[in-house]
Design a protein that fits this description.
globular
């Protein structure tokens, strides 16, 4: 009996989500267009539109031109409603972007972390954004392993410690929070941008790795068949712990890299390992340790690797600044989490 009683409410939730996703994709639509896209009945669409319009979720736009009958009303999501805030901390500052469900950017900036207190700076920024925009969900990028909504950081596997930033945000604010590893979000953002630019390529079959090298650490975000690979313990992509011989990990070697040859040797070995394990069609390389001018040298090194001839080698691409990809990925994940919850009850 419980399942039967809850079924109408569940169906309404599913239909509402379908309507939101349709308006996000189309930008604006008439009721007839929504019916063609979703196969929902005219009565269901009318009732949902009336309810969402009354709640300020959607707005009526222009009337379509008449084709001989009554002119159809167009509807769109209210652009200032249900915004998402994507943010991450790096280099003594917080980079952030506030975006509407249809992609309109309300703010794109950064804020300094004063007095070295990252948690308080993040909490202040979120509170300020909430006071100025209708922010309904936050996507927070962090380094380290993210498991069950909590991040763990550390230079050694047996000394990982929890990062309580996500927990502090959840306790301070009542809306949904998405916590994601930095390079997973970056890889997802790059993939989405790539497919916007190459519309003939299907995301569902896309395989890539986004590898980042700097003096302190290395890591990767891996995409397999269009999905981020997290692994059973959310450990996928933590390349810094990769054994490199002589009881050293990749993270142990990076601080001692002193020349282009040292860097190219490490990059080519790591890319070869990733290629053998995941076989991506595309590998994006970036980070402060790798220079754009070295890309061709890296390709030559890859071709020289045993068993990695040109037909088997992935396309290698340099990406110097990962900010756009990072925020794009966080925004996408946050919106994907938010839309099935809409419309949200009002909160202070």
């Amino acid at each position: 009996m419980t399942g039967v009683t809850g079924k109408p409410e569940l169906m309404k939730r599913m239909n509402t989500t379908l309507l939101y996703r349709t308006l996000i994709r189309l930008g604006s639509a008439t009721r007839a267009e929504v019916a063609n896209e979703t196969n929902l009945s005219a009565t269901t669409i009318r009732n949902l539109f009336e309810e969402l319009e009354a709640g300020g979720e959607i707005v009526a736009g222009a009337l379509d031109r008449s084709s001989g009958g009554r002119r159809a009303q167009r509807y769109a999501l209210y652009p200032a409603r249900n915004l998402t805030l994507a943010l991450y901390c790096a280099g003594g500052r917080i980079d952030y972007r506030i975006t509407g469900l249809t992609g309109d950017v309300a703010a794109d900036s950064f804020a300094p972390i004063e007095d070295g207190d990252t948690v308080e700076a993040v909490l202040r920024l979120i509170a300020d954004c909430r006071s100025r925009w209708d922010v309904r969900a936050v996507g927070l990028g962090v380094s380290g392993i993210v498991e069950n909504g909590r991040a763990y950081i550390g230079s050694e596997l047996d000394t990982l410690v929890p990062n309580d930033l996500g927990a502090r945000v959840r306790s301070a604010f009542p809306f949904p929070l998405v916590l994601e590893n930095d390079l997973n979000a970056t890889a997802l953002g790059y993939m989405n941008r790539y497919h916007r630019e190459h519309s003939s390529c299907s995301p569902a079959g896309f395989n890539m790795a986004y590898i980042h090298f700097d003096r302190e650490s290395a890591g990767a975000g891996v995409i397999a068949n269009g999905q981020v690979v997290h692994g059973a313990k959310q450990f996928a992509g933590e390349l810094g712990f990769l054994p490199m011989g002589h009881k050293q990990t990749l993270n142990d070697l990076l601080p001692s890299v002193s020349s282009r040859e040292d860097c190219l040797d490490i990059v080519s070995r790591v890319v070869s390992i990733v290629n053998c394990v995941t076989n991506p069609e595309l590998v994006v390389v970036g980070g402060s340790l790798f220079d754009a001018a070295w890309l061709q040298y890296a390709l030559d090194r890859l071709n020289a690797q045993p068993g990695l001839s040109s037909p088997l080698r992935p396309l290698l691409v340099y990406r110097g600044d990962n900010r756009e990809d990072y925020l794009d990925g966080l925004t996408y994940l946050t919106q994907q989490d938010l839309v099935p919850r809409l419309p949200l009850a009002a909160f202070d």
